[in-house]
Amino acid sequence: MRAHGLFLLMLAAMACEPGLAAPTDPDEPTDLAYQLIPSGDPNSPAGIVLQWTPPRSGLAVTYDVYSRSSTHDEFDLRATTTSPSFHDAGFPQLQYYIQALDADSENMGRSDIVEVDERNRLPAPHSLTSVTLNGGVELRWDQNAYDAAPLVFDLYRIYSTSVTATRACDQAAWSLEGTTVSDGFVSRNLPNGVTRCFAVSAISRDGHESLWSGVREDTPRFDARSIVLDASDVRRGSSGFVFMPGAAGAFGVVVSDTTPGTDVVLERRTDGALWFRAARAESRVTQYGLAPVSELTSIDRAPLVGYADAARVSAGYGYVFRVQYGDAVRYAAVRVVHVAADYVLFDFAFQNQGGSGELLRMPP
Predict the structure, then answer these.
(1) Across residues 134-138, what is the average pLDDT?
(2) Measured between alpha carbons, how far is residue 37 from residues 45, 49, 57, 121 in Å?
(3) Radius of gyration for the chain, computed over Cα atoms and rounded to the nearest angstrom
(4) Distance (Å, rounded) from C-alpha 197 to C-alpha 211?
């Protein structure tokens, strides 16, 4: 008995020890957290999802969700659910807590109060720009939203809309193009010659949406430059490239990394860096010089030596590919315009005359 009493005293002392948290009530829901659902309107989320951990006792059968829109209001019963989560559609309340009930509908324990924290809203992305592509648009913006709170930042949402007859952005037709964690995004499969408006917002980890960036207009055009190649672990169907006719049946075309005759594949290494990898034994690559090149035309002659089966990709740098088709060796030049987290944008030139190292820009 004396040993048992001493043990209880030790437990009590530990509970009072500064910095040591007392064990939670086994009948209380814990870890209540929320996730806002962005709607495109930063001031009006589409809803909120609540999640919590069920009581350790295992006796909870249902949960009452209580909420209030102001700290001056009383909490009201919002809903009852049997799941340890709840989707509250529409504009969220300010505060929520969860009450656990047993099989007899008797109150057990309640969670802590969670409050939707407006301080987690990020600033709007700055300096939205675009690069016109063939059948698409590449968008870029500053990473100021990420820099403002790296631990709070989650992702970006990209929106687009059509243009009216008066060349204004159609405010009633905005739609979500996609999301990304990178400071760049390629909008694909767009009709050439048709103008669209684009904007970007930043999303915090708890779902707060920032104000939108400035609007950018762009019109995809027919062009042989500005090629987008995706990392093979992200989008295999557009991670390979063929410089001239072969099994792929086209000149200068983006293909799958498994397409027969593919010359080069963009792959991501374990450290996250992107590399050009020769996709067949008859294809080799080398970086052109030790510094960036200002234009594709700066790559005027192909080097005679130094080719390897892969080269790390860096923005602004030039690369030369030595490719063999049949019994003829040909050279291609590439200048990388932009390197994103999971794709690259580049211009290229190709010398169709076998054996010649003179690299001329490919005609449009």
Answers:
(1) 84
(2) 6, 7, 32, 13
(3) 29
(4) 16
